[in-house]
Amino acid sequence: MHCRSGGWAFLLGLHVIAVLQVEAVDVYTSGEVEALNGTDARLKCTFRTSAPIGQSLAVTWNFKSENGGREEYVFYYHGKPYPPAQGRFKNRAVWDGEVSRSDASIIIRNLHFSDNGTFICRVMNPPDVEGSIGEIQLRVVSHVSFSEIHLLAIVIGSTCVLIILLVAIVILVRHCKKKHQESSTQMSELERKEKESINKKLLKPEADTT
Questions:
Q1: Is the CB of residue 26 less than 8 Å from the CB of residue 132?
Q2: pTM (2 d.p.)
Q3: Around Cβ 158, how many Cβ atoms within 10 Å?
């Protein structure tokens, strides 16, 4: 009886240890992506896991349309990329990650307005099989709207152009001043020589009369 209870306790201890060793996989995404219709969009998904990254790591990408409905298969990675053989993302979903660097990103080529919706990135790396799910809200638009980032980029670019113009103006002004000073120096030298020549001419008659 004691042996049987001891065996159960041993198995229970192993189970507890196994549970304690399992940790979650943290998945991170960009949250929202806006892209032009007909262009390509990179859907960035990175992760953090406590277990060593090897051939057992698996990445699954799914899509849920903004119009509702079931999740659709987009991409699968397990040791190597497995692009979709059918469906709306066939020949359009491309692997762009590097699991050794904790990157599970993909690219969706030739975007359509029907691609508006939520892309879901799941990563499992046994024994880390639980954890957060990364979601990206994709908005396919006919023209890119100006965000704060775009506005900041324009301001920074305009400031850089203005600084370059000011530097060019300062250099040009200094160059003109230098040329003017050189010209003034040459004129002064010519005037001095002319005065010396006139003085010599005036002194020469006096010398002849004596």
A1: yes
A2: 0.60
A3: 10
Residue 119 has a CB neighbour count (10 Å cut-off) of 25
**Cis previous bond, 52, omega within 30:** no
Mapped onto helix, strand or coil, the DSSP state of residue 154 is helix
Express each pLDDT in 76-121 by its tens digit.
Answer: 999 999 999 999 999 999 999 999 999 999 999 999 999 999 999 9
Q: Which of 36, 121, 37, 42 is nearest to 74 (CA)?
A: 121
Which DSSP state fits 128?
Answer: B
Query: Would you give the distance in Å from CA 113 to the centre of its chain?
Result: 24
Distance between CA atoms of residues 76 and 118, nearest Å = 17
Give the residue among 112, 104, 98, 100 at the shortest CA–CA distance from 40. Answer: 112
- Rounded Cα–Cα distance for residues 190 and 202 (Å): 18
User: Position of tokens 């806006």?
Assistant: 34
- Residue (of 138, 139, 122) closest to 130 by Cα position: 122
Tens digit of each residue's pLDDT (9 = 90 or more) over 135-174: 999 999 988 665 556 666 787 888 899 899 989 999 988 8
Is residue 127 within 8 Å of residue 19, measured between CB atoms?
A: no
Amino acid at 30: S
Which residues pair with residue 47 across a beta bridge? 27
Q: State the Cα–Cα distance between residues 207 and 72, nearest whole angstrom.
A: 115
Q: How far apart are CA 27 and CA 47, in angstroms?
A: 4
